[in-house]
Amino acid sequence: MRRVGLAVGLSFLWLPILLLVGYAFSADRIPFQWGGFSLRWFAALAANERMLEAAWLSLRIAAGAATLAVLLGGMAGWVLARHGPFRGRAVFGALAGAPLVLPEVVTGLSLLLLFVVLQGWAEAALGWQVGRGAATVLLAHATLGLAYVAVVVQARLAGMDPALEEAAADLGAGPFTVFRTVTLPLMAPALVAGWLLAFTLSLDDVVVASFVSGPAGTTLPMLVFSQLRIGLTPEINALATVILALAGLAVGAAALILGRNGRRGPGAG
Amino acid sequence: MRRALILLPPFLWLLLLVAAPVAILAGIALSEPAPGVPPFLPPVSLEAGWQGSFANLLTLAEDWYYAAAFLRSLVVAFLSAAICLLLAYPMALGIASAREGWRVPLLALVLLPFWTGFLPRLGAWIGLLRDGGWVNGVLMGLGLTEAPVPLLYSDAALYLGMVHAYLPFAVLPLTATLLRRDLSVEEAAADLGATPWVVFRTVTLPLSLPGAAAAFLLVFIPAAGEFVIPELLGPPEALLVGRALWGEFFQNRDWPLAAALAVALLALLILPIRLFQRLEDDGGSRRAASPPSRSSGQSLDMVP
């Protein structure tokens, strides 16, 4: 019974994806129609300058946003799990959790309004004209990622005994040494998972990016979305196949790293 | 002192990029549209003092067009979350009761589609649901219909897309809750003569309710403001809050009305959001408490 339910659910999730991958290798112009095996849509994708440019921009934004998110979200997660009480803790927790629960359109519009206000100030006060584009998308995605990283790191640290750090301190390690030799290794798997989560989140976002970006900042999802509004092309299937292959590789690598760390880590039993 | 150095960067970041934007959003919702860049008059200015108005929020309350959009969004979000929950429950149960070495790979199978890109998956549905697509081919092959049924740009396509996109979100919290449950209670019930169905109905199901509620809300909250899925798969005339907001902003350039829509959506979602956060806090603190000493009786209370 339980296995049937799981099988039904997994087939529902995977059937469209498997069909998409299969038909990405079809020569036919109409997507999801078999016209013999061909790699022509991958070749078309590789020759599509606009798509490549958008993909390169998206990858850079995602890498930058994920790195910022890991730095800030790692700090936020540590604060939530280990800092102890301080004034404003409730506000801090609510703000760190807000991006997880705010609808995308609300996040996108509110961040855009912030950027517009800041642009106005920069121009009035400094005569500095800043456009919106890749930088504003990066800031927005770093904020979203921060919230996800904070949750993952907090959960990881909450599951770890603070006595480990206390023991290190008792044995004479300074706060920085405790952090570097005990806390950071404990957090590492969560930081890796959080980076990957923030990275994919950024690569997948179309709504927030559409709001906060400018004319010079068309990300890959924005481009794909505008094409899908007109209709599906076989090129998009080829693109999805490439993304799926990369995501599979990333997940495999992450599983290897996390698995090794989990076996080595102090929490393993 | 050193702790403040770790606290301050994320705190300042969150104040600037989460708190300030929402405050500005509320301010713009009270402003008047005006030609220019940006296309509104600030509600408060140094020269004119207060020049805001409640006209935008009143428009939302009075114009049946927007009320209908909110109502429809709530229905779509509710049904999507309910369908996800029904599909996710047996999946989570299957994962939680699988042998230990199987759990992580199975969970990865659920999550991997979520990492393959949201838009390409919607693209797949566009390809599968169109008149000459796979789904119609199967329906016609089975003799269920003679001519292709217009599936794409229908409510059916909208729900298919919603459930396909959000199902992994529902499986995760349910699996976590089911994995944490105390199996000896079920064994005791079985030893005392309860049939598997009775064990499920009287023990497993009640114990998993917090996880089920979290799963439902994790779909309901984002689905209520969803824009992309209805835009790509749903009926063109179907008005939902996400689409209304997008239209006011990008097509009509009425930023104050778009902001008012966002504020109203937030006000509507504040209860589900608070409920979800309490469930999360509760689950988190129970996970943190090393011996499971607390009873499940206070499942909805904040544990200090």
Automatic annotation (TrEMBL), chain A:
CDD domains: TM_PBP2. The chain crosses the membrane at residues 61-80, 92-118, 138-157, 178-200, 206-226, 238-259. It comes from Roseicella aerolata. It is a multi-pass membrane protein. InterPro entries: Bact_Polyamine_Transport (IPR051789), MetI-like (IPR000515), MetI-like_sf (IPR035906). This is ABC transporter permease subunit. Residues 55-255 form the ABC transmembrane type-1 domain. PANTHER family: PUTRESCINE TRANSPORT SYSTEM PERMEASE PROTEIN POTI. Belongs to the binding-protein-dependent transport system permease family. CysTW subfamily. The lineage of its organism: Bacteria, Pseudomonadati, Pseudomonadota, Alphaproteobacteria, Acetobacterales. Keywords: Cell membrane, Membrane, Transmembrane, Transmembrane helix, Transport. One of its GO terms (biological process) is transmembrane transport. GO terms for cellular component: plasma membrane. It is found in: Cell membrane. Its main location: membrane.
From TrEMBL, chain B:
It comes from the Bacteria. Its main location: membrane. It is found in: Cell membrane. GO terms for cellular component: plasma membrane. It is a multi-pass membrane protein. InterPro entries: MetI-like (IPR000515), MetI-like_sf (IPR035906). Residues 286-297 have a biased composition (Low complexity). Residues 283-304 are annotated as: Disordered. Keywords: Cell membrane, Membrane, Transmembrane, Transmembrane helix, Transport. The chain crosses the membrane at residues 64-89, 101-119, 156-179, 199-224, 255-276. Belongs to the binding-protein-dependent transport system permease family. CysTW subfamily. This is ABC transporter permease. It comes from Roseicella aerolata.
